[in-house]
């Protein structure tokens, strides 16, 4: 897993899972704490995430809200869009361009 960017926009790549969650949490929390305005996470290079990785994203979402910021997900891969829809988190998280629920293949 890798994260590159600054306190306003970050690209998350690789696997966001139980093995990388602690490092990701540290970097993402620092980005929230050090910036202002929207924090955009570009997920176009993210290969996969598990429940722990999704928990990191939700934790960053909550932290951003407490800091008066908004977490925005950009370029969410279709596989991860399906997970967000299945968990109904697409209704809570800000997703750039939204998710075309009707266009996603049924699982």
From TrEMBL:
InterPro entries: Anti-sigma_ant, MlaB-like_STAS, STAS_dom, STAS_dom_sf. PROSITE patterns: STAS. CDD domains: STAS_anti-anti-sigma_factors (cd07043). It holds the Pfam family STAS_2. Residues 10-107 form the STAS domain. Belongs to the anti-sigma-factor antagonist family. This is Anti-sigma factor antagonist. It comes from Streptomyces macrolidinus. The lineage of its organism: Bacteria, Bacillati, Actinomycetota, Actinomycetes, Kitasatosporales.
């Amino acid at each position: 897993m890798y994260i590159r960017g600054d306190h306003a926009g970050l690209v998350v790549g690789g696997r966001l899972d139980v093995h990388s969650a602690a490092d990701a949490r540290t970097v993402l929390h620092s980005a929230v704490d050090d910036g202002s305005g929207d924090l955009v996470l570009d997920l176009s290079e993210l290969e996969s995430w598990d429940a722990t990785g999704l928990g990191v994203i939700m934790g960053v979402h909550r932290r951003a809200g407490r800091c008066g910021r908004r977490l925005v997900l950009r370029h969410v891969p279709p596989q991860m869009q399906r997970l967000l829809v299945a968990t109904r988190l697409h209704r809570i998280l800000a997703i750039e361009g939204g998710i075309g629920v009707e266009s996603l293949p049924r699982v």
